[in-house]
């Protein structure tokens, strides 16, 4: 986020200090994108900004959130509000400001931002948790019975099937669809299949898991210094972000824990953001343990929780019972009262960027929230984003470093293995080098554990030579060119440069220039063939789609009932397993072959993070990185754990090409089932934009996206670049709404895009 992006001036605050009710309010009506209507406030009703209200809409009634109070009312025909659902505003004034700021910045409807702030179960549930209906299965219907019910009343059958498939003893009505589920549930009660009762259970997403209390560790000098800086900023109410750059294993979490304890002892609230909670269960567990003596002090928020759990945790935070909220990106909107400290762990992680609308960046909004609330904010990482590194170098962030592992263990020895010189052994299908194979064998003999990482290939088809590692790149942007089948050309997605597809590698003249991809399943097959005795477990998106699957696998790995853990990026995050002495990266360079200005940064971060998983116990760790491009800067700097060296090198390149963090990029995408429709809509929009955009904004020509078709829709896109993001957001979103391309076309603008597919 650049300096120019200041928080909005809060000019409406004085209106709401007045205790008397004002004549009218502007309400954002639920369920309709950005439908804003004015309503009269009936005498005696104390409405504030952020309150939830019931309003008339045509012949029915619905709910909404009060956006602003309208000072003067001229229209005497305004319909009155029906009811104030709760006197207390459900959204604080600061969060309302944040939502409005974010909506403008990311060119998203305010309504969508508010949806993030007030989660679905909270919006849907109108009554207090004390009166919540809980539904339980009494008897499993036979298949025959179920079929019969399905024919007559599919909703009832759906509810039954849901209850039968649930691992829990029952569900709150809200989980089953809220009020509309009431009638079918009553019918099922009549049939004697289910029971329905009123319940007041606070459902804890950590479930029955118990957490043994942990005591604060004695900090080492680096940690002490980091904690001092944080507490000093907190003491002074300084909101300048603190960038905590600490190598993997330097003990950042302990610093977070002690900072949180201090802030909490001062009566203030704490917000902790983690990349993806199911991938970082240890962070959650460490907080639960440290504060185990204050039951309920730590609340967890994330989307995989049931509605009931989310409802309870959210309210527990809002009422100030829970003083620490932990969750992934969306938790940044948690209604923590009297917020004192925000921690963004692994701040570089791309999962902080939401990939569907509203496409906000959780870290950047957290920085903004801290500024608005006067809270201290800490961004922590071993491999900070170049955005944050540049901010620190420019003095906008305060840098604190922790360069040693907390236990004085050395960082693991990292070898880069050149796959171009590897004999093409049919048995291993070019997946396992001999060096990595024997290293795995050695660990199995010694009873030590290994992690194997497969870089996810992505969808883009860049050309890489398997013999020399050469990747065909753009002359102007130095990014890999993407192969387009339809025109049989290589195309640059940032500037539009085109090249013919070489028949032979321009570097080594080899003919085999298209690289074959492979997935985790194929690797698993090869591993099982190599090591029939080994206990191998695969973790990828297929496996983790099952509830609790990842948690169970990680518990098994910790208990050492798995020897080799094989997985994609998701196993590189924040895990701390003392038994792991070997980490192998199967295809380090695939992440480099994508047309994305952050490809090198991501690869560097991934390799450094995954290497940090090795050697956390008594025995020193080893890391083997297999690659076709051993000279790539991302790989060489990762081998030396050299974040600063990488940043110097990469920032130089980014500046040269005016890429982020020296500019903002936005991706404009048009999707449609019909190829021509999408192409036409984008080219129309593009022509308009060329006319209206000021010269400071660069816009690429419209092209099929690197991922040209997905979910049955053709995708076309162009990339916009500017120093100031607001110009893009304002002008492009205005043009999009002017275009009115019809129902069969979807137009999206991704501001500060992280995904160029
Ligand atoms: P990071 O989050 O920086 O990767 P962790 O917080 O996971 O590092 O710490 C790595 C290991 O070091 C953990 O096992 C942790 O318990 C231990 N550790 C952290 N601080 C200390 C300390 N001051 N003294 C001893 N061990 C520590
Ligand atoms: Zn070659
Ligand atoms: Zn280019």
Structure description:
The chain is an alpha/beta fold. It folds into five domains: 24-118, PriA, 3(prime) DNA-binding domain (GIY-YIG endonuclease), CATH 3.40.1440.60; 131-200; 221-407, 3-Layer(aba) Sandwich (Rossmann fold); 413-459 and 518-654, 3-Layer(aba) Sandwich (Rossmann fold), CATH 3.40.50; 664-751, Alpha-Beta Plaits (2-Layer Sandwich). It contains 22 helices and 29 strands. A seven-stranded parallel beta sheet has the order 11-12-10-13-14-9-15, with helices on both faces. Strands 16-24-23-17-22-21 form a six-stranded parallel beta sheet, sandwiched between helices. Bound molecules: adenosine-5'-diphosphate and zinc ion (ZN) (2 copies). One zinc ion binds at residues 465, 467-468, 470, 505, 507-508, 510.
